Amino acid sequence: xxxxxxxxxxxxLFSFHFIQSTDKRIFAQTLDEYNIYMVKKGxxxxxxxxxxxxxxxxxxxxxxxxxxxxxxxxxxxxPEKMKQERSQEPPAKLSENEQDLLARLVHAEAKGExxxxxxxxxxxxxxxVSDDRFPDSVKEVIYQDKQFQPxxxxxxxxxxxxxxxxxxxxxxxxxxxxxxxxxxxxxPDIVSKTWLQTRTVTKEIGNHRFAK
Length: 212
Description:
The chain is of the alpha+beta class. It has 7 helices and 8 strands.
């Protein structure tokens, strides 16, 4: 069988193209070109995404994967060069201290939640930084008065676990690429009859409802 090195796709912003690889139909959306990547021993999907400078979720979606599980020798479609039309916003840039602070917030707010939910919590903070209604830095957003319970109860001072750190890295990569503009999240089973419930819901992940 021939090894596919590089596949070039001429696409417009609204077009979808499909290729066949290892009996899977895989689509690439708004790509100038994309490659086939063979998984090496010891690699995780997160490692591959970091190496290529794209988000783990992006590779999952391109390959119709519901989880991040991969195996040695598996062939994945990976983006080579994304179209500039995809986003007008540059990705967020955080210092090590900001990443650590955000990871600690994610750990405290989303412990026990799905990985996607942890990413979404981090995205809320990043979205607030870009929103004129909120402060202009990660630290100021997180420590804004009465915004996040872990700040009030001190749980934000506990170290973040590896999954929370990974979720922050993923959220930073996705910032500027995603259309999600959620700036609030809450647990509807705990929070009831509040101003938050008047906001437009953007999505629900695990026990959290996200809104704008």
